[in-house]
Amino acid sequence: MQATRSLSEYRKRSTLTATTVFLLPVFFFILIFIIYPIIDSFWLSLHEWNGITSGKAFLGLENWKTLLGDKIFFKAFLNNMIIVVLSIAIQLPIAMAIAFLLDTGGKKLNFLKMIYFLPMLMSSVAVGFLFKYTYDPQFGLISAVDTMLGGQGMVDVLGDPHRAIFGVIAVICWQFIPFYMVYFLAALSSLPVEIYEASIIDGASHSQYFWRVALPSMKGTIKSAAVLSLVGSLKYFDLIYVMTQGGPDGATELMATYMYKNAFTIGKMGYGATVASGMFIIITVISLVTLRVINGKEEA
Amino acid sequence: MKKKFKVGKIIVALLALIWLAIAGAPFYFMVASAFKEQFEIFTTGVFAIPKGLYLQNFHKVIEGDFYKYLFNSIFVVGVSLVLILFTSLFASYPFSRFKFKLNKPLFGIIVAAMAVPIHVTLIPVFQLTQKLNLYDTIFALIGPYTAFNLPISVFILTGFMAQIPKELEESAEIDGCGKYRTFFNIIAPLSKPGLATLAIYNSVNMWNEFSFALVLTQSQKSRTLPLSIWEYQGQYNANIPMIMAVLTLCALPMILAFAIGQDKLIKGMMAGAVKG
């Protein structure tokens, strides 16, 4: 009796030691580079600091008051929301249509799949630069197309405050549609062949199969894609920074670019940390609410 | 009914062609321009096929600091990748196997960390790097790269390990194999396919990473490949073919990887698409 108890206790203790040893590295990294920075960011947001001198002036909630009344931050948030909505509305349907085409087309469309996937192979920076030149009013692709269609050329997309955000969203779609295409394609091809055969035998056309059978059974996948797109769009930074740096005149400013500018361009580290923390709160709340809504519906 | 079906098919085929043009044209623009002389695009137009294989652009790019940027990228990605793979391998073992009180809450922290936007941490990490005297060196990137790719890696690998049959370990334990030996002799070798997926996913991510590289490095000597485009742009601002040659060269490693193992690469790149 005594012996078994101590044996089980010994096992428990050895499990505990092993667990600690195995988990130490991962929490070392997470603690230093994720958890501590989040806390530090909130702490910094209570200060005024230029990032160079060692003196930080404690401001209390002053920065947060400024943030709540900051029209540029509000505009940046709106731009993020525009990207969220348009990304989901444009990327997912197109990606779904292409995925369905590739799925029904089978192996002989493999070369299409390869070309469609090309944009995914470039870094955001490269994509940004590529499209900066593609949009170039003088030498770019858009102007060339415009001339071919009998226009004047000289189409300025990124320099025009009304067009810039849409120009940027078009590039985002270009870059990410392949991702959702592959995502949907994987889901489509994992649907059992029997279901497809059964629907065709029952006299369904391809489009009927798509609308009535395939699409409804991909609800979960579509929801996940929408969540991925939502979270990604809220964090957006690289491409916009490369293409417009938030301009012209704040037309494409995002929360992340605004944070970067404050902290690293004009040296307002304290306020930059406030924007970062605000962004963190907004993203967390929106993600949690979305997940709640989506999971809630699934149960109902 | 049949007619409707045909109309749908035509629309889909049309979409396929349009998308082919949309996805392909900028790519064509990039590669074709890279082979043109500086003023060729003005005279012959954007879509024209290059007059000949003009390689001078590539020569000039490589003569510059290209190899240095390439080395920096390879170094940072390589070191971080090794750290990520070992750390997530270690962490996934207790998460997928051991019963202990804190298992769920600790794993919860990992899942939550997956959702943290890196921009919240940029300023503190920037400060930390300065304090550690690592600012503007490539070593500054290793910590953040490792840390930010760990949560999702642990998440994926824990799921993978959970599917390895428990019987193997149980019989090993009966044979007197301790926790560590079980891990190194049984679990680690069986996790290889999972690790391969992680390696692809993380390499691609880090190879293209931008934000940390932008904030934590400053001078040419410590720039990685994605940031090098900036340096070249400063040098060759008005020379579009030159910039396109840089972009083509930067995308080349990925394109090669894609050509060699496209299915594996696609699968690896999609590994991150886990339900939030």
From TrEMBL, chain A:
Record Pfam families: BPD_transp_1
Transmembrane segments: 21-39, 81-102, 114-131, 164-186, 269-294
GO cellular component, one term: plasma membrane
Keywords: Cell membrane, Membrane, Transmembrane, Transmembrane helix, Transport
Cell compartment(s), UniProt: Cell membrane
Domain ABC transmembrane type-1: 77-292
A GO biological process held by the record: transmembrane transport
InterPro entries: ABC_transporter_permease (IPR051393), MetI-like (IPR000515), MetI-like_sf (IPR035906)
Protein topology in the membrane: Multi-pass membrane protein
Family membership: Belongs to the binding-protein-dependent transport system permease family.
Entry protein name: ABC transporter permease
Organism: Ruminiclostridium papyrosolvens C7
